[in-house]
Amino acid sequence: MRVLVTQEDLERRVGELAAEIDRDYKDSDRLLCVGVLKGSVFFMVDLLKKLTVPLAIDFFQTSSYGASTTPGEVRIRKDVDLPVRGKDVLLIEDIVDTGHTLNTILGLLRFRGARSVRLCALLDKKEAREVEIQIDYRGFEIENLFVVGYGLDFDEHYRNLPYIAVLDGADTAAGVPSPS
Ligand code: IMP
Ligand code: MG
User: Fold this and answer.
1) pTM, two decimal places
2) Is 97 a catalytic residue?
3) What are the pLDDT digits (tens) for 94-131?
4) Phi then psi for 92, rounded to 5 degrees?
């Protein structure tokens, strides 16, 4: 395992993103921050603790990565509880890979009548993109490698690492690491 983004770099960048978001939403009294479970949790908590604007939080959970769904087919396993209509929604995600998950969720939020919808993603695996996604607040662009830590898992392991690491022998083309 090789460290790709250190704890210090994460802290610094999360602080910068929070400052930007705080500035952009200073006049909004209806910010709804929606995290995508489970990967975004560590990032979301650190980010939101640094915001001073009033906000509510909620969560989506989608079908897990590498599930036996056809490419682009995204299942919503847990929907948000709060109404979205009229809200300024900030969707918070750990990583944008093919973009199918976010494409589905962003479309759903708009369909439900959010006043605005923006995306904040910690990591951007740009090379892996299959559908175009606008990332309004982006932490880091990374290579097309399978990464773990700071919320991201391999088979539910490594989420609690305080940094982002690359798993050796990861087969990114298949979307999941080879078991080596
Ligand atoms: P997408 O729909 O292909 O963009 O995939 C999004 C989801 O796949 C992310 O929210 C992650 O949960 C998962 N994912 C994609 N790449 C990685 C990775 O390198 N490590 C761990 N999870 C990943
Ligand atoms: Mg995720």
Assistant:
1) 0.91
2) yes
3) 999 999 989 999 999 999 999 999 999 999 999 999 99
4) -115, 120
Q: Could you count the other beta carbons within 10 Å of the beta carbon of residue 19?
A: 12
d(CA 46, CA 43): 5
Roughly what angle, to the nearest 10 degrees, separates helices 41-49 and 7-24? Answer: 60
Task: Determine which one of 97, 136, 153, 171 is catalytic.
Answer: 97
User: For ligand 1, is residue 177 a contact (CB within 6 Å)?
Assistant: no
From the CA of 172, which ligand is nearest? 1
Q: Look over the chain and give the mean of its residue pLDDT values, rounded to a whole number.
A: 91
Which residues is 149 bridged to in the sheet? 152
User: What domains lie within the chain, and their CATH numbers?
Assistant: 2-145 (3.40.50.2020)
Q: What is the DSSP track for 104-135?
A: HHHHHHHHTT-SEEEEEEEEE-GGG-SS----
